């Protein structure tokens, strides 16, 4: 692989790394809070993917201005940004619910360690 | 009139289905009303079915397509000689069994009688339904309903043993059912049709591997109910059910449904020609022949009367299967007629066994010394059934065995004639001694004449007469012999002039 | 009625929000609003169903007046009408059922329950109806959030089990969203019809393939396809009966539906079978899942856990239909969506009824229930017959179609799997039938009520002769009738709705 390959794609590589870190945190960590942190990283990587994909060098916000005229290539594509905004709202809601479930779990089991909780769950069942 | 007769198959199915619902609603407390419903349904059903006999013999095929249940496949009812033959015998014997069951259930003071009569009616609905099914899907639907509706009857006593047997019964029955479903799916996927055709609708172009798979799936599905070894072991166990169930379902309706399945399989799905060509006939015949002999041998060893009769049933069902698998027109005629004669004889024997049990509490052959003095009529009927199964002339069994034997010779397979003859001897060996010891030996228990209740003795007498009539004048009762001839004619094209 | 597609989710969302506001003051009124909204959505769905089948044309609606493909589009076609009717119908029945059950199982926690139920149905109906790939994601997550809220209110382990479900769900949603991104950046649109029109030129593109794989993978996670099912048993076991009764029948199915939608209407015909082996993969994974779910279910003692493992197997039937990718196999899979929703909904509601009446959840304890609550147990027998696939109940026909499809596709292993799994499910369900109809020996009837925490005698007043109250029994009765009717008249559904839906497979 050449340097050019990485140079042209480094934002995507960064996003892929972030995705991997997020997934790693969600699957490999035993602590529930760390899992949630992993989830947030994973989600953020997806937002970045949309932003990066829609990025245009030198383009302006998608509101008509005299200076830029009617050439659409000079404006940013608004759709990915709308998508990301919506996705962020959804993501925040999920994180909120996750944290409240985390609290409830902690109150009932006195631990955030998945293995400890599962053990105590099996015992009471 | 013809328009009405097109509805008759549907009405015949509904008659007992309605009874299955009305009986439990009427409930245990209004016993007489409940029993009226059962009798009413049985009589209506039989009348509807009997009304179709002349037309069907004249070539009419009553029936209707109800609604489409799969692409190109309807819930279809078609009355042909094969279905009508089986349906007539089952519905006729249901009337007798109903009366007998009233006597039996009262005498034995059984619990949950509403459930019993309701499920019995449901079984009859399913049986008649599968008789009149015009295609494989309809057939399988009723076949499965029959399997499930029999389960509550098998576990009737509620004992631990009954539940274990019920479990075994379900495993066998559901395995059989799913095998049939698989078989029909395979046929449909390849041919796009499931309608029964006299002479069959599969052909050799479909590939031997495929045809053998279809055959094995269907043979598994029907073989379980027909008790072909090695699939028979549920049947003797199912004798734990009350005797009317053993008599009607496990000697006539349920087990013959399996045998009837083989009739449909050979005559109406594969066709005799293809069935012989692919070698499936030889395969099936070998299994059936082994079953006939082994079951008879086991029957000799059984001291429990119902168990002995059950093994006898296993053997006789395979007579029919063997007759079909021989493929000769005469053998097929014998097989079809044996469905009726065996039903008449075996139900008589079971009725007798039940009457003895309810009346004296005795279940074992070794306890029956001298019982002929106490219950002469019952044991006389037992004697008729016994010699009939052994193949003595003047009882129905002789006629069917005659044609089976002639067919075996016609087909150039004399070995099967020997199977029939040998098994006739074995039949005599395990049934006739019961009669002789009942009349010839004496026992302090049985000194004066004291028959079971009339509700049981009268049905016993009627089935005995039925068995005798079939032997003396085979076409005299509901034209069974002509129906059997019509089956053979439609499947093979061979007609018999004059008959017996 | 071109607004119809919009009215269905709108009435549900509105009902959910209003129900929340009112519910803070009066729970009863909150419930009534949620129920009314859902019932209205059901009626609208039925109207839509009739209209679509009679005209043969989908009803399209541009949200907010923005012309598609720029704006979001709702499309009520055959398949969407099929799904929304199912989803809102089950929703209505469960909402009728819920109050008594919830008051008994989790007293004092129900402020959020009814709004969440309405929103869950809204999310699922929205997923069914939307014609926009990204909008599908939004509805997917609305449904998921509502489901988390519903499930967490259950037993002690409820929140933990739900949290694990949430994490899986987030990954699933994330993958799907990522897939949408890949499709958008290579095709330039997220409108399904628009994407479908532009895709044929781009089928070779590697990022389209990546997008398709990611979207299907995400939906498969949400669908609970084996081996990604592991959250399911704990979640259903610890959830309140009515929540499980709402979520288990329809939630995973709608994700399966979304995969079918992608396969039929977004990607070119045969794309999932020829260009990339997605269908075959789903099929094999499903075949494994069917066996796994059925075998594990046999060993379960807890009724709800048994149902959960059974669900792992049953959802895989739908997967098998996708895997077969021929018209009749897919019809079988789609028909099984409705069949299984009815049966499994019925079984969970019966579980709730048993719990309400006796407090029992373990199968070996259920001996003699047939005498205590006969009508509920008759309904149970119907459900069992359907699960095992005894005709003429609904379960029989989907299996027949799948088997025919398997033969046509020469998929003999799958064919054998269907046969085997029917027998396995017979084992675990008939075992329970045997238990409930066996007579109790050496046990006094009076003793067990107090010991196991069932309802007290006072609460039982007003219930039908030892049965559950009408509000719980009527949904059970309706579902049992539906299980039989859908079986008998299955072909009407197939002809009117499913055959047009799978038409793209024929055209390909």
List keywords for this structure.
heterotrimer, B: 500 residues, mainly alpha, two-stranded antiparallel ribbon, 20 helices, 2 strands, globular, C: 508 residues, 77% helix
What does this structure look like?
The complex is a heterotrimer of chains A (125), B (500) and C (508). With 125 residues, chain A is mostly helical. Chain A has four helices and no strands. Chain B has one domain (2-492). Helix content of chain B is 75%, strand content 3%. In chain B, a hairpin with a 2-residue loop joins strand 1 (63-70) and strand 2 (73-78). In chain B, helix 5 runs parallel beside helix 10 (243-270), helix 16 (376-390) packs antiparallel against helix 18 and helix 17 packs parallel to helix 19. Chain C has a domain at 277-508. In chain C, strands 1-2 form a two-stranded antiparallel ribbon. Classes of the chains: A mainly alpha (125), B mainly alpha (500), C mainly alpha (508). Chains in contact: A-C, B-C.
| Rounded radius of gyration of chain C (Å) | 22 Å
Number of strands of chain C: 2
How many separate structural domains of chain B?
A: 1
> Unreliable stretches of chain C, pLDDT < 50, 5 or more residues?
442-452
Summary, kept brief:
The complex is a heterotrimer of chains A (125), B (500) and C (508). Chain A has helices spanning 3-28, 32-54, 78-109, 114-124. Chain A is mainly α and 125 residues long.
Topology:
The complex is a heterotrimer of chains A (125), B (500) and C (508).
Chain A: H1 3-28, H2 32-54, H3 78-109, H4 114-124
Chain B: H1 2-26, H2 31-51, H3 53-57, E1 63-70, E2 73-78, H4 81-108, H5 113-131, H6 136-154, H7 160-191, H8 208-226, H9 234-237, H10 243-270, H11 272-277, H12 280-301, H13 305-326, H14 329-360, H15 371-374, H16 376-390, H17 396-410, H18 414-440, H19 454-472, H20 480-492
Antiparallel strand pairs in B: 1-2
Helix pairs in contact in B: 1-2, 1-5, 2-4, 2-5, 4-5, 4-10, 4-14, 4-19, 4-20, 5-6, 5-10, 6-7, 6-10, 7-8, 8-10, 10-13, 10-14, 12-13, 12-18, 13-14, 13-18, 14-16, 14-17, 14-19, 14-20, 16-18, 16-19, 17-18, 17-19
Chain C: H1 4-25, H2 27-55, E1 59-62, E2 73-76, H3 78-105, H4 113-129, H5 133-152, H6 158-187, H7 192-198, H8 206-223, H9 231-238, H10 241-266, H11 271-275, H12 278-298, H13 303-324, H14 327-358, H15 369-372, H16 374-388, H17 394-408, H18 412-437, H19 445-452, H20 457-460, H21 470-488, H22 490-501, H23 503-507
Antiparallel strand pairs in C: 1-2
Helix pairs in contact in C: 1-2, 1-4, 2-3, 2-4, 3-4, 3-10, 3-14, 3-21, 3-22, 4-5, 4-10, 5-6, 5-10, 6-8, 6-9, 8-10, 9-13, 10-13, 10-14, 12-13, 12-18, 13-14, 13-17, 13-18, 14-16, 14-17, 14-21, 14-22, 16-18, 16-21, 17-18, 17-21
